[in-house]
Amino acid sequence: MDYRKLHETSTVDLLSHVYKNYRPRKKISSTSNIYEVERLIWKREKRERFIEQTEYLVKWTGYSKYESTWESSDEISPECIRLFEKPEPEQLQILEAVDSLRAAVESRLKSNSRLPLTIDFPTHIFKYLFEGKGAVIRGWLYLEEADFNRRLFKKSWDVCLDSFGEGHKISYPIRLRSFLSWSPKKFVRQTNGQLQLCSRAYQERLSFSFARSPC
């Protein structure tokens, strides 16, 4: 996918008063209040004054994760929301994320630990690969062998043997959870002596665990 086109179409139309406390984002043009969005990262439901409101965490083009903000769905273009719900990541991004997951699975197959393993993993890649598959139980997605695309997860990706032909394989289902973690909460002291909460950076993460069996 051409992400330059995404930047041109995935925008948030913001009322000027909403951002009176923020420095200006990069505008699509100098004559509008439409700003470039790199990607919508996460979605949450928020209740305020008995009104349910959907908000998205926006990663702004040209700005760090520390400057990402939660915005109401009313302020976000339909195209941007569509790409959040049905991502169209570039092939290289997909391959890099899958490589990371496969390497982590191989490491876990060689380990005796039963604890979940956590890695960095883009939330939109997780959605692209696994949305609509498996079963969600208590916040975890349980996947069977057939839920993994064989074009990306090659034969025997879930097996790890040593030079003697001994090792382990995944005993399905494998459970996964995509989530955000945050940089530590901290404060700065203002000139008037009062403490102000600093912005925090998100980190897109994936935890997984599975039982293994000898092979």
From TrEMBL:
It comes from Desmophyllum pertusum. Pfam families: Chromo (PF00385). Residues 35-85 form the Chromo domain. Coiled coil: none annotated. Its main location: nucleus. SMART domains: CHROMO. This is Chromo domain-containing protein. GO terms for cellular component: nucleus. It comes from the Eukaryota. Keywords: Nucleus. The lineage of its organism: Eukaryota, Metazoa, Cnidaria, Anthozoa, Hexacorallia. It is found in: Nucleus.
